[in-house]
Write a structure and sequence with these properties.
Elements: E1 3-8, E2 13-18, E3 26-29, H1 44-56, E4 61-65, E5 69-71, E6 75-78, E7 86-90, E8 93-95, H2 100-103, E9 109-114, E10 117-122, E11 125-127, H3 131-138, E12 148-153, E13 156-161, E14 164-166, E15 173-176, E16 179-184, E17 187-189, E18 200-203, E19 206-216, E20 222-224, E21 229-238, E22 244-249, E23 258-269, E24 273-279, E25 287-301, E26 303-308, E27 326-339, E28 343-348, E29 355-367, E30 370-371, E31 373-377, E32 379-384
Parallel strand pairs: 3-4, 4-7, 5-8, 6-9, 7-10, 8-11, 9-12, 10-13, 11-14, 12-15, 13-16, 14-17, 15-18, 16-19, 17-19, 18-20, 19-21, 20-22, 21-23, 22-24, 23-25, 24-26, 25-27, 26-28, 27-29, 28-31, 29-32
Antiparallel strand pairs: 1-2, 29-30
């Protein structure tokens, strides 16, 4: 059984897991290839050598990073691997170079795993030293593009457990073109004011599970992009940040759709948004369908439930067109807590492509100890067994096209 050690610091609490070495695996210790902890020297080459041997092993193999702090520059661990499963065990801290502002910021990714079938990553701390990059972004100076701390491209049958990622330049984690991955017990931390520090970005991926994790960042807790299917998010705490977002979508007219999303047993605290779906006001063949939000607790969230089909940050690059992206079959079941604003539910759907199949069941949200209000435009659905304040439905569709038996104070 794993031993759990809790480390306290002035800034955060780190849950550090020490996993037992795999008895049947061939172990490649990065220190045997020249990695020196705690001395400020670049260990990238040693990490790559250990990975190369682990990946080329015909039997189960492990790349092992012992305790200590290791400086690592931009690095890609690539497959395919010969073994059915390769494990990366991190007992120490992997840290970006002191000048990571440029050294990793110019590449878009810091640590990348790609083209691997059967990958396990256990434990460890990733420190991207993102602060200088955020300062540059806030100053509107010439800046590099910024790097995602940990990326997975075309990985199948992956398990990521126990990672602690702090101060990413941009997103902490990105999952692109992956199938059947489990992300569990990860802790992602960046200050509330850090720009674009998403927790986990997902797109073009199927069968992803995000479980038992804590995400406290400056942007989306989880951002669900085009082509995401069969995603489960469960027992996650989120906040500060911008909540759990589907989108933004409809950037281009031919995006892949999003479907089969389940978000369950989640708590959001002090975030700008709670459960958000956002699309640009542009033509699109894309869609969002079959989404379930269940057993959600909101604590002082500014926009607990929001569908925004006129998403246009900074009002740049937007047209006078309506969103062509179709949103249907979205269920909110057992959602409770407090809103930081009077309007807790805001459905602003496309005037030409209305949202339909929206279901509110046992939704209880308050503002200043009173039932919160709702706003609907071009949204069709039903509501039951909850408590909300007065409806502010407007527009050419409004409540006149709502279906089902209306509950007093709801949109429908």
């Amino acid at each position: 059984m794993s031993k759990i050690i809790i480390l306290f610091s002035l800034k955060f609490v780190v849950l550090f897991a020490i996993f037992p070495l795999c008895a049947n695996a061939v172990i490649y210790n990065v220190q045997n290839f020249g990695a020196k902890p705690n001395n400020g020297r670049d260990s990238t080459k040693a990490f790559l050598q250990a990975w190369s041997l682990a990946c080329s092993s015909t039997t189960p193999a492990m790349m092992f990073i012992p305790r200590g702090t290791y400086l690592v520059n931009t690095v890609a661990f690539s497959g395919p691997c010969k073994s059915a499963r390769v494990t990366v065990r991190i007992d120490g801290k992997i840290q970006a170079p002191p000048s990571s502002y440029w050294e990793i910021g110019n590449y878009g990714t810091w640590i990348l795993f790609q083209g691997i079938n059967g990958l396990t990553i256990n434990g460890g701390i990733l420190d991207a030293r993102g602060s200088p990059f955020w300062i540059c972004r806030r100053a509107s100076a010439y800046c590099p593009q910024g790097a995602t701390s940990l990326s997975f491209n075309n990985v199948k049958n992956g398990i990521v457990s126990g990672i602690v990622s702090i101060d990413s330049q941009k997103a902490h984690m990105a999952i692109n073109g992956c199938k059947t991955m489990k992300i569990r017990k990860v802790t992602l931390i960046a200050p509330a004011q850090s720009p674009n520090t998403d927790g986990i970005d997902i797109q073009s991926s199927t069968g992803i599970k995000i479980l038992d994790s804590s995400i406290r960042t400056g942007d989306d807790c989880i951002a669900i992009g085009p082509g995401t299917k069969s995603l489960l998010v469960q027992r996650v705490v989120c906040g500060p940040g911008h909540g759990i977002s589907i989108g933004s979508l409809a950037r281009s007219p031919n995006e892949a759709g999003v479907e089969g999303i389940k978000v369950k047993d989640v708590t959001l605290t002090g975030s700008d948004n709670g459960l958000r779906i956002k699309t640009w006001p542009k033509p699109s063949n894309g869609f969002v369908k079959n989404v379930l939000y269940q057993n959600i607790v909101m604590n002082n969230v500014r926009n607990p439930i929001i569908i925004d089909q006129i998403y246009c940050p900074g009002t740049k690059g937007c047209s006078d067109q309506n969103s062509g992206l179709k949103i249907s079959g979205v269920t909110y079941l057992n959602v409770s807590g407090t809103s930081a604003t009077p309007i807790a539910i805001r459905f602003h759907c496309s005037a030409t492509t209305p949202c339909d199949g929206i279901k509110l069941s046992n939704v209880n949200l308050t503002y200043s100890k009173q039932p919160a209000k709702t706003f609907c435009f071009s949204a069709l659905g039903t509501s039951s067994a909850g408590q909300l304040g007065t409806s502010l439905s407007v527009g050419q569709l409004g409540t006149s096209l709502s279906v089902g038996r209306p509950t007093p104070g709801s949109c429908f």
